[in-house]
Inverse folding.
C-alpha cells in the first residue's frame, strides 16, 4: 500500500516536471521562430506582352486561393530576364527571389514550377530550391510539380485539351498540339500524353518542335488516315515565338507549311495553355499538394 502510494507520488512528480519542461521549450520555440509561408511561382519567362495574360491568370488564381500568403515570381531564363531588364522590367532568378524571401524572414516556401514537363529547367529549379533548405536558410522548401508529373496529371491535361478544341472541329479532322520538346529524358511525356489523348479520340496528336515526335511522324499517320484538315494549337504555357513562327508561320518549315504542302488544310489557334482555367487549375492543385506536405 505504502509502496503503491510512493510510486503514484513519483509518477505525479515526473509528470509535473515533464509538463514544466515541455511548456518552457514550447515557449522558447514560439519566440522568434514564427512560421511564415510564401509561394514562389517560377516560369521560363517570356518577353511578349501577350504572355502577361497567361502569367496574370495563374497569379490571380493562386492569390485567390491563398489570400494571406505572399506570392512572388521568378523567371528561369536569363535571356528573357536580360531582355526585360533593358525595357525596365526587373524579374528575379529563382535564387535571387529565394534570397529576398529569406531576408523577409519567411520560413517555408512552396516553389511552384510553371513548366509543362519535369525537364532540365524543372530539375535545375529543384536543385536551387533545395540548396535554400539548410541552417540559416528556410525550414522547408517544397517544389510543386510541373503541369505533367503523375498519371493523374496526364489524365487531367488530356481532359483539359478536349475542353479547348474548337466546337467546329469534326471527328475526321485532326488536332495537333505543338509541345516544346527537350534533350532531357522527360521528353517522353509528350508521347505519353498523346497516348492518353488517343484513348479519348484517335485523331488528337502531340508533336514537338525540339524533340520527339517530330511533325513528320504525325504527318505520316495523318496521311495514312487520309485526314484533310488539322487544327494546330501550342502545348506551351505561353503562345510565344515557337507558336507564332514554327507552328503558325509562313516559312516553308513551319508546321502549317509542312502540313499544307502534304494536302492538309490548317487552322491555327494562338493561345498558350496558361490562358485556359482548366490548365491553371492543374498548377493550382500542385501548389495545394505542396502546401499539404508542409
Ligand atoms: Co525553344
Amino acid at each position: 500500500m505504502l509502496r503503491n502510494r510512493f510510486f503514484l507520488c513519483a509518477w505525479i512528480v515526473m509528470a509535473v516536471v515533464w509538463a514544466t519542461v515541455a511548456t518552457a521549450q514550447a515557449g522558447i520555440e514560439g519566440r522568434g521562430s514564427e512560421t511564415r509561408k510564401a509561394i514562389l511561382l517560377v516560369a521560363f519567362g517570356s518577353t511578349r506582352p501577350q504572355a502577361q495574360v497567361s502569367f496574370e491568370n495563374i497569379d490571380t488564381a493562386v492569390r485567390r486561393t491563398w489570400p494571406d500568403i505572399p506570392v512572388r515570381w521568378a523567371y528561369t531564363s536569363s535571356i528573357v530576364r536580360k531582355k526585360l531588364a533593358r525595357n525596365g522590367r526587373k524579374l528575379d532568378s529563382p535564387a535571387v527571389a529565394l534570397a529576398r524571401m529569406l531576408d523577409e524572414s519567411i520560413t517555408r516556401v512552396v516553389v511552384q514550377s510553371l513548366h509543362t514537363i519535369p525537364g532540365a529547367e524543372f530539375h535545375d529549379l529543384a536543385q536551387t530550391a533545395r540548396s535554400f533548405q539548410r541552417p540559416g536558410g528556410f525550414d522547408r522548401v517544397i517544389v510543386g510539380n510541373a503541369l505533367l508529373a503523375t498519371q493523374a496529371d496526364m489524365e487531367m491535361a488530356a481532359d483539359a485539351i478536349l475542353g479547348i478544341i474548337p466546337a467546329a472541329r469534326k471527328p475526321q479532322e485532326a488536332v495537333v498540339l505543338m509541345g516544346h520538346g527537350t534533350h532531357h529524358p522527360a521528353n517522353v511525356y509528350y508521347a505519353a500524353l498523346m497516348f492518353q489523348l488517343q484513348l479519348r479520340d484517335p485523331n488528337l496528336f502531340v508533336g514537338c518542335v525540339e524533340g520527339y515526335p517530330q511533325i513528320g511522324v504525325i504527318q505520316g499517320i495523318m496521311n495514312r488516315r487520309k485526314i484533310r484538315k488539322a487544327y494546330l494549337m501550342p502545348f506551351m504555357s505561353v503562345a510565344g515565338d515557337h507558336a507564332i513562327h514554327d507552328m503558325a508561320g509562313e516559312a516553308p518549315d513551319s508546321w502549317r507549311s509542312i502540313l499544307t504542302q502534304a494536302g492538309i488544310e490548317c487552322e491555327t489557334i494562338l493561345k498558350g495553355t496558361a490562358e485556359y482555367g482548366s490548365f491553371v487549375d492543374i498548377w493550382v492543385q500542385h501548389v495545394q499538394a505542396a502546401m499539404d506536405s508542409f
Observations:
- The radius of gyration is 25 Å.
- Residues 180, 210, 242 surround cobalt (II) ion (CB under 6 Å).
